[in-house]
Design brief:
By secondary structure, the chain is an alpha/beta fold. It folds into 2 domains: 176 residues, Thiol:disulfide interchange protein DsbD, N-terminal domain (Immunoglobulin-like); 247 residues, TIM Barrel (Alpha-Beta Barrel), CATH 3.20.20. The strands form 4 sheets. The protein has a 5-stranded parallel sheet with strand order 12-13-14-15-16. Helix 12 packs antiparallel against helix 13.
């Protein structure tokens, strides 16, 4: 690496000393031209539009690939300014070729001659017929074997013509867009298959087993505690064999049910990488795009209550345009982000089911169009939360607000900071109700103090008393 950096520095110094003065500040835009190609003459509302930005690079020059060999190199990228009714569903950059240059010891991945950058745009079914202009910017830096020019931004316009309902559409540039289809199949490696191939079946199944055990630490499992305790707590059978058989049947039933649910849909937690500083939306989008290419399962996007992991509104809208992303569990615990996300998805007519996991403001979410909930707090005062859902479905939002007002003290204490102790608080109430035997939580969770437990149970009794009077 030191040799590469030294050679790069030397090449820059040589260029400054030997190149003509006018070339020192020359723009890369003179060596690269960009033009837009479309897959059809016109497009219907509600359909997808394939776009190619074709880069033609002057002979003897190259530009870095989108993912360059080294971090200090400036990669080629496209930014498209969308309009209402149009979202970016996919961006595909070519892989590039590996070439040797005098200023580097290693081969560098670059583009030369003519290369296409492909995009898929998702059109809302509410977009109006006519011509729509989407400005695009291509960021590039042109180099030859001796010198790199100043980075430039090439500006082009994508002109989409939306046809009126019933009008026929005609394809064009088919040979160019055939390369898009090939790109969709290239370089998509199934990580699970790779694990089986490289580590063997035993290690792969062990990893899957451990991941399954880890899922038992999530709050989503707790609704089953009351079912399990009530089922086995009432058993009076003393025959060990029969008790064992019943337990086996119960476990197999649960496993079968979760297996069926598992092939119905998968809710995707954001990976740890998403919390590493400022992670661009493009990376998050590609994570879902690549995941969708590896499975036919419907996918559920999970917006969790951790700011570093959040998906911004534009990224959510792009992910919503992917074919097998069917729902969003919005659990950011941030009213502004939730409202902005809901408005954007509704405005674009996104084919996406909006669910809420915002335990702190359930009623507001129901009023803004969510069709269901995935909530930890409904383990406590379950009947009252069921009544809240019934009011929302009946359109009685005044009644809904009043009902949630009765539940507010419980929301504030169970999902107050630190939120990580919400599990301990829920278990404290379930223990008080006799549903579970103890309120133990696994380390590193610390559990709540006796004082906090007393305050929690006091508020819970207030909620119960109000529910009884209503």
């Amino acid at each position: 690496m030191k040799t590469i950096l030294r050679n790069t520095l030397l090449s820059i110094l040589i260029a400054w000393s030997a190149a003509p003065a006018q070339s020192l500040f020359a723009s890369s835009s003179k060596q690269v031209k960009a033009e837009v190609k479309l897959s059809q003459e016109t497009f219907q509302s509600g359909s997808s539009a394939q776009v190619a930005i074709l880069l033609t690079i002057e002979e003897g020059w190259h530009i870095n690939a989108h993912t360059p060999t080294y971090d200090y190199l400036i990669g080629t990228s496209v930014e498209l300014q969308t309009i209402e009714g149009v979202i970016i569903a996919d961006i595909r950059y070519p892989e590039g070729t590996l070439q040797q240059f005098g200023f580097a010891d290693d081969l560098l991945r670059v583009y030369d001659e003519t290369v296409p950058i492909f995009l898929t745009l998702k059109l809302s079914d509410k977009i109006k017929p006519g011509t729509h202009t989407l400005p695009a910017t291509v960021k590039i830096q042109a180099c030859n074997d001796q010198v790199c020019l100043a980075p430039s931004s090439l500006s082009v316009d994508v002109l989409l013509i939306v046809a009126a309902a019933g009008e026929s559409v005609q394809k064009k540039n088919e040979s160019l867009f055939a390369r898009y289809d090939e790109a969709l199949l290239a370089g998509t490696e199934n990580e699970l298959a790779k694990l089986f191939a490289t580590e063997g079946s035993f290690v792969a199944f062990l990893a899957i087993f451990l991941i399954g055990l880890a899922l038992n630490l999530t709050p989503c499992v707790y609704p089953m505690l009351s079912v399990t305790v009530s089922l086995f707590g009432t058993q009076s059978d003393t025959n060990t064999a029969r008790v064992f058989i019943k337990a086996v049947v119960y476990i197999l039933g649960i496993a079968s049910m979760y297996s069926v649910l598992g092939v119905t849909a998968a809710m995707i937690f954001p990976p740890l990488l998403f919390a590493w500083g400022e992670v661009p939306g493009e990376l998050k989008f590609r994570f879902f795009r690549d995941l969708g290419e590896q499975t036919r399962l419907p996918l559920v996007l999970f917006q969790i209550p951790v700011r570093n992991y959040w998906y911004d509104v534009d990224t959510v809208a792009r992910i919503a345009g992917l074919p097998n992303v069917v729902a969003l569990k919005e659990a950011s615990f941030d009213r502004e982000l939730f409202a902005a996300t809901a408005r954007r998805l509704q405005a674009e007519g996104a084919d996406l089911t909006l669910l809420t996991g915002n335990d702190r403001f359930v009623g507001e979410c129901l009023e803004q169009g969510v069709v269901g909930t995935l909530l930890g707090i409904t383990n406590v005062a379950t009947a009252e939360w069921a009544r809240l859902m019934a009011l929302a479905r009946a359109g009685d939002f005044a009644g809904l607000r009043a009902a949630e007002g009765n539940l507010r003290p419980l929301q504030e204490v169970i999902f107050g900071e630190p939120i990580v102790e919400a599990v301990s608080r829920i278990k404290t109430v379930l223990r008080q109700e006799g549903i579970i035997a103890h309120g133990y939580v696994r380390p590193p969770q610390m559990g709540i103090s006796p004082e906090e437990a007393r305050d929690l149970l006091r508020r819970y009794e207030v909620v119960r008393a109000v529910a009884v009077t209503n």
